[in-house]
Amino acid sequence: MSSVEERLAELGLTVPDVVPPVAAYVPAVRSGNQVFTAGQLPMRDGALIATGKVGDTVPPEVAAECARQCALNAIAAVKSVVGLEKVVRVVKVVVFVASTPDFTGQPVVANGASELLAAAFGDAGIHARSAVGVPVLPLDAPVEVEILVEIAD
């Protein structure tokens, strides 16, 4: 078990199985000393944990939980390509939030992912980030997260 998995276990979490792609792509790709994940949806046990738009049917607190699950799924995608012990740092996180036009709390929703990554990777989990409001996401998910990590050779 990696130190990342040990930290997650302290939070009562485990790295899930990789979520199968819903279209023609792979969950993560290594290029040089970086791993790029595909956008991860808030899937848990084979189903979305919420659907709809933030600011309408999805409260911001539930959306933050979705972002946290997306980040956990991104960790699983990285693990499937290189193993978590090789991660040097989380470099960049992009969080897409399907939200109503008047909702402006995308950064608060994105904190669900950012806080999980910092807890899992320690200082190496502190990253640059974008939080973007969008009109709709695949499968009517309220949140989608992709991450870029640097890895050791």
UniProtKB/TrEMBL annotation:
InterPro entries: Endoribo_LPSP/chorism_mut-like, RutC-like_sf, YjgF/YER057c/UK114. CDD domains: YjgF_YER057c_UK114_like_1 (cd02199). This is RidA family protein.
